């Protein structure tokens, strides 16, 4: 589904509940963010073809939990370069090649991506912020109704998660594109939600 002029969103319902949402930036080059599991791969590629998205140049991951990254290898086999935070390798079951060391900024065509370290759910979790659209691709940092990402899994840290929520609050966010569930929209509502979530995490 085309979300913005150069951004596509593929959010899954109950059939693929065990696979993350996938987002694609298409601006001369194609960047897939969190391609999900093997289970959802065929459907994802079919939807991409319907939207005219073919060759993928880059695959970036918010983190390396299976539901977000299992199908990395299928894109890599077709030439896509992988980018993620190397800290993820200490807690992940996968040993992907780190082709691109992501800094604070990456440009796809003319679309700028600001890359923020937002650990807590995992030690190397990243948020990809698209200033042109005031949209943040947050992985498992936060979900609908302010539900925070899990902090009871290996490598997670509740205090770091709270700090990352605060970091997200500093951005001009009109849209949150989460790893699971529906996309959230509205600056005022998002700000109130993030404030409440941060308070809960500090208890």
Topology:
Layout: E1 2-4, E2 7-10, E3 22-27, E4 29-33, H1 38-50, E5 58-60, H2 66-69, H3 72-76, E6 81-84, E7 100-101, E8 105-108, E9 111-117, E10 126-130, E11 135-139, H4 158-169, E12 175-178, E13 184-185, H5 187-201
Parallel strand pairs: 4-5, 5-6, 6-7, 11-12
Antiparallel strand pairs: 1-2, 2-3, 3-4, 8-9, 9-10, 10-11, 12-13
Helix pairs in contact: 4-5
What is the tally of beta strands? Answer: 13
Query: H/E series, N to C?
Result: EEEEHEHHEEEEEEHEEH
Strand content: 25-35%
Query: Tell me about the biggest sheet?
Result: 7 strands, mixed
Give me the side-by-side strand order of the main sheet: 1-2-3-4-5-6-7
End-to-end separation in angstroms reads: 39 Å
What would you report as the Rg, rounded to the nearest angstrom?
16 Å
Characterize the overall form: globular
State the helix count: 5
Summarize the amount of helix as a percent range: 10-25%
Q: Roughly what is the average pLDDT, rounded to an integer?
A: 96
Low-confidence stretches: none
Structural class by secondary-structure content:
alpha/beta
Describe the overall structure.
With 203 residues, the protein is α/β, with parallel strands linked by helices. Helices cover 24% and strands 27% of the residues. It has 5 helices and 13 strands. The protein has helices at 38-50, 66-69, 72-76, 158-169, 187-201; strands at 2-4, 7-10, 22-27, 29-33, 58-60, 81-84, 100-101, 105-108, 111-117, 126-130, 135-139, 175-178, 184-185. The protein has a 7-stranded mixed sheet. Strands 8-9-10-11-12-13 form a 6-stranded mixed sheet, covered by helices on one side. Helix 4 runs antiparallel to helix 5 (187-201). It is globular. The relative contact order is 0.14. The model has no long low-confidence stretch (mean pLDDT 96).
